[in-house]
Fold:
Amino acid sequence: MLPIDLLRRSDRRASRSPDESPVLIIDQIAQRRVVAHACERARAMGITPGLALADARGAMAPAVPRLEDHDPAHTESCLGSLALWATRFAPAAAPDPPDGLMLDISGCARVWGGEANLADSITHALLSLGLRARVAIAPSVGGAWALARHSKHPPGQHPLAHAGNLRRLLTPFPTAALRLEPDTLHDLARLGIDRVEHLLNLPRRTLPARFGDAVLLRLDQALGEAIETIEPARPTDPPRAERVFDGSTDRWDAIERTVRDLLDELGRRLLAREIGALRVSAELARTDLGPAIETAVLSRPSRDARHLWSILRPKLERTHLGFGVERVRLTATRVARLHHEQAEHWRPADADQSRRAGELLDTLGARFGPTRIGRAELIESHIPERAARWSPVLADHAGTPTTVPPPGDRPTVLLDPPAEARVLALTPDGPVLSLAWKGEQRRIERCLGPERIGPEWWAGDTQGRDYFKLQDDAGRWIWAFRETGSRRWCVHGVWA
Structure:
């Protein structure tokens, strides 16, 4: 049994540089904000889960921590996804909330060249995901859990236990390594029983009467003397519809009728799960050639068979059928939640506007390519040229961005990169009298500002900017800034 105790990071940027802010995951308990999880840098400063946020800030001064809200549902979902990811190392993997994984590696070690190599492979794979982990191997679930969380091995070394030395390794561990309830641990501590060896020295028949059956059960599970299994995470099969012909056929009308029937069947299966397809794969198994696979990518979830057929039909019509097709399979390889909608007799004219816009984008993407249709997407940056980016509408449905546009008046045309200019001003803070840009000297009639935008110091920026909104003698409005350090002036945008 191999458990993985994950030292989670809420953001990969937290591990890029030692100069960046430590990350704290904050939970709200009654009227108090407490630390639920802390990154490695914060733990090195003495921050532990359960500490009040005010005390944590005082202990970390002068460092300013980056705060994230604790979302248990999201954490549980991510841990389940990580358990499915871990099945590449062992066929049975299960989440171990709140921050661990359990893998049953029975018979798997020889494939990886031994247990030590397997533990190293898992550690390096998690590091590539931005996660540090403590990995341990033991013949029992409870023993492996205790070794991963309470052993004192240095980084890079993994405790490996077997039936002959497991008891000896667990003896010096605290009683918390047995996964006992907090009330039971408190009762044991009151009697001076704070290590596993203290429990082992007591007569077994007295433990259930004094502390309950759970103590003896957890002790036996840790030592491998009681049966304990894990419930592995199992992936959900994607919605699929398939039909096998009695014999191969190269008639297009038969294949068309089959695909349309399968789209109706796939739509019913999507409806039963209250989901819609974002990507549908059509596979034609040919007798003399390899399978032909065509994919329909959608901008919004849909289970409309007519719309899916309009995307797949041009691609299937160009498919070479060889000597015939013997099987057709449709699979919704990417799905998203799509709730039921209440049907109305008097429906507003613009009620279907979102659906029709999505169908238009799907049609354009099928004709010109899924990466040729883009949209502006907001990102978390207050630097104007970094605050948005273009991303394909049909590439891995990104959903609605959670950021909001920055406050203030912004130009309709943004120059990237900003164009250098020469400015004449009465004082460094304005007002601006003239602006030389594009080889033309412009007299400034109105000057509004400055608006200070600080640098993103965590990304290596050192220059802040003072922005001015300028109107020249021709009535045109120009957005210009002066760097706070170099005093260099640049034009960053104009109002069309």
Remarks:
- The longest strand covers residues 440-453.
- The longest helix spans residues 252-273.
- Residues 350 and 356 are 10 Å apart (CA to CA).
- The chain has a mean pLDDT of 86.
